[in-house]
Amino acid sequence: MKKNFPPYDEVVKFHGHSCPGLATGYKLTTLAFEKLNELRSQDEEIVAIVENDACGTDAVQYISGCTFGKGNFIFKDHGKMVYTFICRKSGKAVRASRNPVFRKKVGNLTRDEMINAILSASAQEFVKLEETSGKVPVKAQLYKNLTCEECQETVMETRIKEINGRKLCIPCANKEISS
Ligand SMILES: [Zn+2]
Ligand SMILES: [Zn+2]
């Protein structure tokens, strides 16, 4: 089964501009999905794990359909341009990262040249794809909501900080600490 991915231009519209980060995200995601499609049964739900929050993650969300709101888009703050796509049922997964050799090769290009080089690169020279058996992190549980004693806004209980005996939301707690 060959999947048709949205063209790069469409992803540019979604993101707001074209940039090497977006092109990289586009390429990593489409190549990872081609690999994943060989592994999964058609309608299996996919979970995406991204290890940074840069431009490229807009391409991940647009192409994969995994989004923050649906809860199948998970951000791990590792500062690495690495994406893992997991089939929820089978646990089959593909981890996509950039081929370090390619990075060095395009390092001296102008921005536009770099975007073109990324988009036209072959899978082999551009990406490192590893089959893994990904564990899907437990879905966010439903926590109780509490009221911040300062701003009176509703806050998930796991995000409440207790400062001087008062239960505060994170922004109010930070203000309290710095005052
Ligand atoms: Zn960008
Ligand atoms: Zn508050």
Describe, in plain words, how this protein is organized in 3D.
The chain has about 180 residues and is an alpha+beta fold. The protein folds into 2 domains: about 10-135, 2-Layer Sandwich (60s Ribosomal Protein L30, Chain: A), CATH 3.30.1330.130; about 145-179, 2-Layer Sandwich (Wheat Germ Agglutinin (Isolectin 2), domain 1), CATH 3.30.60. Helices cover about 35% and strands about 20% of the residues. It has helices at about 10-15, 20-40, 55-65, 100-105, 110-120, 125, 170-179, and strands spanning about 45-50, 75, 80-85, 90-100, 125-135, 145, 155, 160-165, 165-170. The strands form 3 sheets. Strands 2-1-3-4-5 form a 5-stranded mixed sheet. A two-stranded antiparallel sheet has the order 6-7. The longest helix is centred in the N-terminal third of the chain and has 20 residues, at about 20-40. The protein is globular. The protein starts with 7 loop residues before the first helix and ends with a helix. One zinc ion binds near residues 148 and 171.
Mind sketching the topology for me?
Elements: H1 8-15, H2 20-39, E1 46-50, H3 56-64, E2 73-75, E3 82-87, E4 92-98, H4 100-106, H5 111-120, H6 123-126, E5 127-133, E6 145-147, E7 154-156, E8 161-163, E9 166-168, H7 170-178
Parallel strand pairs: 1-2
Antiparallel strand pairs: 1-3, 3-4, 4-5, 6-7, 8-9
Helix pairs in contact: 1-3, 2-3, 2-5
The protein binds zinc ion (2 copies).
The site of one zinc ion has 8 residues, from α7.
